[in-house]
Write a structure and sequence with these properties.
This protein is an alpha/beta fold. Helix content is about 45%, strand content about 15%. The chain is globular.
Length: about 280
């Protein structure tokens, strides 16, 4: 007999009337350009390879793994435990967790191109996530399928997070852990935590707590964008006009001119919750 398949529902992508998928895919059409920029910024070599998951440090990944494993109850399932990487992008975090834990990871993103690029990079080994294009407001999974959920830099982008949290609760086992991150301006940080706590309680979650990880995130972002800005002449010489937009973002985030939020005025939090029993 073959390996038992996880209790997944129909696997397909959802088309929204507003053409939203095209907008999400557009974000990832510049992914290759951003990788080339970061290769030059960090190594000075356009053809070098960055070691995934390059966006998150190893200490943070170890913390995620410890939290998920300590909160997940093995007695709640009879097969290899499933972890949902919700709003996974290319699935870097899910790939790492799958490679370092007993979880089988299902990586879901609304952008088809994100799943395609993720599968190309991570989807050819036994430990790789399974990629599914789907809407977090309407997930194609059965009730109580997942032993844990992680969502990095995704939920706060949703215009309507309430139904998305309801869907996550539906597909999670009772008592399963949820870890997600949010970004907020410095002035509204406290209010943002309060609002997310209310949303969790309204959707059958128990809010466990949160951690202000702004200092670590700000240091990582400053290192990344400062490296890009320092090598801007080399980047422009190698990649030309298409790189100018990305460098303009770095300039703004570093506070070197222009309107918009900067790294130093943005806060980041990790929020921990459990699906109610």
């Amino acid at each position: 007999m073959g390996q038992e398949q996880p209790p997944l529902g129909k696997q397909y992508g959802y088309r929204l009337a507003d053409g939203g998928r095209l907008n999400y895919d557009a974000v990832y059409r510049r992914h290759s350009l951003r990788e080339q920029i970061d290769c030059i910024a960090t190594t000075g070599n356009l053809n070098s390879k960055l070691t995934p998951p390059f966006a998150i440090d190893s200490n943070t990944l170890d913390r995620y793994l410890t939290l998920l494993q300590s909160a997940s109850n093995p007695s709640l399932h009879h097969r290899k435990p499933l972890l949902l990487d919700a709003g996974a992008g290319l699935g870097e975090v899910g790939w790492w967790l799958s490679s370092h834990s007993p979880f089988e990871v299902i990586a879901v993103d609304y952008a088809f191109l994100a799943c395609k690029l993720g599968f190309k990079r991570f989807g050819r080994t036994v430990e790789s996530p399974r990629y599914i294009t789907a809407d977090l407001h309407n997930l194609p999974f059965r009730h109580s399928s997942f032993s844990a959920v992680i969502s990095i830099d995704s939920l706060y982008f949703l215009p309507h997070p309430l139904p998305a949290l309801s869907e996550l609760a539906r597909v999670m086992l009772p008592g399963a852990p949820l870890i997600f991150t949010i970004l907020s301006s410095d002035q509204s940080y406290g209010c943002a935590l309060t609002e997310w706590t209310k949303l969790l309680k309204a959707n059958d979650f128990t809010a466990i707590g949160s951690a202000d990880v702004s200092a670590c995130w700000q240091a990582q972002m400053h290192e990344k964008h400062a490296a890009r800005w320092a090598k801007r002449k080399q980047i422009m010489a190698a990649l030309g006009v298409p790189a100018a937009q990305e460098l303009a973002v770095s300039r703004t985030l570093l506070g070197l001119g222009g309107a918009g939020p900067t790294i130093s005025t943005t806060r980041r939090a990790e929020i921990y919750a459990q699906r109610a029993d």
